[in-house]
């Protein structure tokens, strides 16, 4: 069964020692959101979904695997860095002021996506790093992802894949209207801020791990930092093997037909003749 912890339970000091995930990776994301301002207990994820990139354990052997954990036979803990976001609205045309002035905090495991939404115009947003404007993103949008999220939407958008233990934040443009805008990796300790450019023709939309989608108006800002509470997940084998095994089994990373030796090709030609 899944262990679901409500906010009220956390407020009263209830903190589980371990979370067993017998569901799809979406439950992994829910765990991060539930523990917003406190440490996340170790997560043991069992594969019941379709892909299984974040769930290395097989459900068929869950009794044996859980017993090993309680016997202290944990090989490694994978500490996944995730980010905290604050969305602040300063008021916008057509929106009630009481809904636009609140600061909304979110915690994501994969990525924050800012895109053009239903508009036919390209999005135009400014990207700040520690208060300094570094570039404007003109295109379909921008993905700000954690190392864990680098193998999700960011990978589909052409970004590199980062091992979950690397403390970093990846910024990936979505279909940029530029031939030279490549994804960049910045240190985990910086603060990123995204706002609508003053000359943007349309609003933009933001989503957090694919959820809680909302519109961004002029004057709104999204601040993104690395959370000081990583998500520890129990490894099936070890820190390195689990990740590369997921790349190979789930994403078929670098899979191609093996090239034959020249001697083998010559022997095959002689046999045919």
Automatic annotation (TrEMBL):
Gene3D superfamilies: Probable inorganic polyphosphate/atp-NAD kinase, domain 1, Probable inorganic polyphosphate/atp-NAD kinase, domain 2. Coiled coil: none annotated. It holds the Pfam family NAD_kinase_C. InterPro entries: ATP-NAD_kinase_N, ATP-NAD_kinase_PpnK-typ_C, NAD/diacylglycerol_kinase_sf. GO terms for biological process: NAD+ metabolic process; NADP+ biosynthetic process. It comes from the Eukaryota. GO terms for molecular function: NAD+ kinase activity. This is NAD kinase b. It comes from Acanthochromis polyacanthus.
């Amino acid at each position: 069964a899944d262990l679901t912890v409500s906010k009220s339970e956390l407020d009263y000091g209830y903190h589980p020692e371990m979370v067993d995930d017998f569901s799809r990776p979406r439950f992994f994301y829910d765990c991060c959101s539930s523990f917003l301002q406190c440490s996340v207990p170790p997560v043991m994820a069992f594969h019941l979904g379709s892909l299984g990139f974040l769930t290395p354990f097989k459900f068929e052997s869950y009794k044996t695997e859980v017993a090993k954990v309680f016997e202290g036979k944990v090989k490694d803990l994978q500490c996944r860095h995730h980010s905290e976001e604050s969305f602040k609205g300063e008021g916008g045309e057509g929106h009630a002021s009481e809904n636009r002035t609140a600061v909304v905090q979110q915690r994501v495991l994969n990525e924050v996506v800012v895109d053009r939404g239903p508009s036919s115009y390209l999005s135009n947003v400014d990207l700040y790093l520690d208060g300094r404007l570094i570039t404007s993103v003109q295109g379909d949008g921008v993905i700000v992802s954690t190392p864990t999220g680098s193998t999700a939407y960011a990978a589909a958008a052409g970004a590199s894949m980062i091992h979950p233990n690397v403390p970093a934040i990846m910024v990936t443009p979505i279909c940029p209207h530029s031939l030279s805008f490549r994804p960049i990796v910045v240190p985990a300790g910086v603060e990123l801020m995204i706002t609508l450019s003053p000359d943007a023709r349309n609003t933009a939309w933001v989503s957090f791990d694919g959820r809680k989608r909302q519109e961004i108006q002029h004057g709104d800002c999204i601040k993104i930092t690395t959370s000081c509470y990583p998500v520890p997940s129990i490894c099936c084998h070890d820190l390195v093997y689990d990740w590369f095994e997921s790349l190979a089994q789930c994403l078929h990373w670098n899979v191609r037909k093996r090239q034959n030796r020249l001697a083998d090709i010559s022997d095959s030609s002689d046999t045919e003749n």
